[in-house]
């Protein structure tokens, strides 16, 4: 199983039959309602963290530190096992809204999972 990252706007370009789509944001665009995207709420960044970043109250390094702290309360092996169950042998794409390749929690998450950042290129 490989883990890739991408964002919702690219979903129409993805052959979704070949991937397991995992939402790592609290919501998803309404236009994706007909597409199966499984959410894992435990991985969503807390709203105060997102708001602090979007309002310029913290640096990216501080965001990273706080998100990793949030993840420190989660059993990584259980998450990896759950991803294997959900994927049913397919590669996984972690999805959120952010199109910025450098400043997105999905990259922090992929690193935390031990899979590194592999942005899906379409």
Topology (elements, then pairings):
Elements: E1 3-7, E2 19-23, E3 38-39, H1 47-54, H2 60-71, H3 76-87, E4 91-96, H4 105-113
Helix pairs in contact: 1-2, 2-4
Question: How would you summarize what this structure contains?
Answer:
This protein has 122 residues and is α/β, with parallel strands linked by helices.
Describe the structure in your own words:
Helix 1 packs antiparallel against helix 2 (60-71) and helix 2 (60-71) packs across helix 4 (105-113). The protein is α/β, with parallel strands linked by helices. The two termini are 19 Å apart. It has helices at residues 47-54, 60-71, 76-87, 105-113, and strands spanning 3-7, 19-23, 38-39, 91-96. The longest helix has 12 residues, at 60-71. It has a four-stranded parallel beta sheet with strand order 1-4-2-3, covered by helices on one side.
**What is the alpha-carbon Rg in Å?**
14 Å
In terms of DSSP E residues, the strand content is 5-15%
Count of DSSP E strands? 4
Straight-line distance between termini: 19 Å
The class by helix and strand makeup works out as alpha/beta
Main sheet overview: 4 strands, parallel
Key traits:
4 helices, 122 residues, 4-stranded parallel β-sheet, alpha/beta
